[in-house]
Amino acid sequence: MDSPTDIQLHYNEYGEGPPFILLHGNGESCDYFEHQIPSFSTNYRVIAIDTRGHGQSPRGEKPFTIVQFAEDLHDFMDEQGLDKVILLGFSDGGNIALTFALKYPERVEKLIVDGANLFPRGVKSRYQWPIELGYRLAKLFAKKSEQARKNAEMLGLMVNEPHIDPAELSKLIMPVLVVAGTKDMIKASHTRLIYKSLPNAKLEIIVGDHFVANKRPEDFNAVVLTFLAEF
Predict the structure, then answer these.
(1) Where does residue 10 rank: exposed (0-12), middle (13-18), buried (19+ CB within 10 A)?
(2) By CB neighbour count within 10 A (0-12 exposed, 13-18 middle, 19+ buried), where does 203 fall?
(3) What burial letters (b/e) apply to 31-67, b meaning 16+ CB within 10 Å?
(4) What angle do CA 123, 50, 52 make, to 5 degrees?
(5) Domain 11-119+163-230 adopts which CATH fold?
(6) Opening angle at CA 62, ends 56 and 63, nearest 5
(7) Which of 2, 78, 136, 173 has its CA 20 to 30 A from that of 145?
């Protein structure tokens, strides 16, 4: 039987101040936040984590799910002695952040979700269909190819998850910043649903696509730092 923590997550840490954890998206690593870390670490202790099976973090034996990733974050915070943090998640990282906050709200000081979704239908169909096709093809060859198996597992996160009830978001009373791009792969109506379901939220739409943090870092960093200063 696995111990409570079956893996050690890889992470990079920068700066001093209130702890500020960054969670990347599907198939990425903590390197996604290369344009955020210099800005945020001026006043915060920034901890950028590689999710289970991503970047330099091992896959381990536990389920490859958003819920498990949230449990991994809980274990990581316990290991690091972090009682309460500012939490920023992009895409699947945002889904992990919401899942974590719903189960452990007392551990989240402030929450920032960028390009998150509550369920797969929140993704625009022109983006979701290719993902679903790739998932089906990868599953077809998964028994013969280790790479196909890994691809199926990764794509499966976007096809089958997350499963968050919008009504549950009313329980999150901490300040939340909801961010998306004007041409995001997440439906605008879905981003508004997330925002409207949260009792203490701010909405920021930045010109750009799903990857505004990486492609429009000055704009993205400005709205995040303004939010943190105001709330």
Answers:
(1) middle
(2) middle
(3) ebbebbbebbbeebbbbbbbbbbbbebeebeeebbbe
(4) 80
(5) Rossmann fold (3.40.50)
(6) 100
(7) 2
Going by their DSSP bridges, the two strands 45-49 and 11-14 should be labelled as: antiparallel
Question: Is the pTM higher than 0.85?
Answer: yes
Is the CB of residue 52 less than 8 Å from the CB of residue 7? yes
Total residue count of the chain as it appears in this document: 231
Q: How many Å apart are CA 102 and CA 222, to the nearest integer?
A: 27
Q: Where in the chain is the domain with CATH 3.40.50.1820?
A: 11-119+163-230
pLDDT 10s digits, 76-101: 999 999 999 999 999 999 999 999 99
